[in-house]
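Q: Hi! First time doing this. I have a protein sequence and I read that you can turn it into a structure. Is that right? Here it is:
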Amino acid sequence: MARKRAAKPALPEAGKSPGGPRKKTIVAGPKPAAPRARKVKTAPSQLDRLQAVIVASLEDDKAENVVTLDLEGKAMFCDRMVIASGLADRQITAMAQHLQEKLREAGLKRVQIEGAGGSDWVLIDAGDIIIHLFKPEARAMYALEKMWGEELDEAV
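A: Yes, that's right. Below is the predicted 3D structure, encoded as structure tokens:
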């Protein structure tokens, strides 16, 4: 009588669980993912300087409830977010135009503006800093401070 030999499992954890090869692979766990490539960061002093230019410009234009959020490590698309309110379309459009001019003077060549044609929400992409200009009703509806603020971290 010949005895059959039991096949050795390829993964030590896989031999302990019942099921087929797919189930054993799932139990063994995922392979470590390769680290994601991160865009080159602007020096912190540069970010602080640009943030100061942005906040000063918004305050000069009488923006209301200016809030700055630090998103470093939370978001891949930016490191800081500035949120402010304006009372009228013309005020928000003027704030966006003034921000674009002052950021160019500060050395930022590529500043993109979306929604400046008279909407409730204008987004300004200044690279590592994103600026949102809202009418008060739209700001309350989208509630970006709650979405990206520290209250979210405390809930987790």
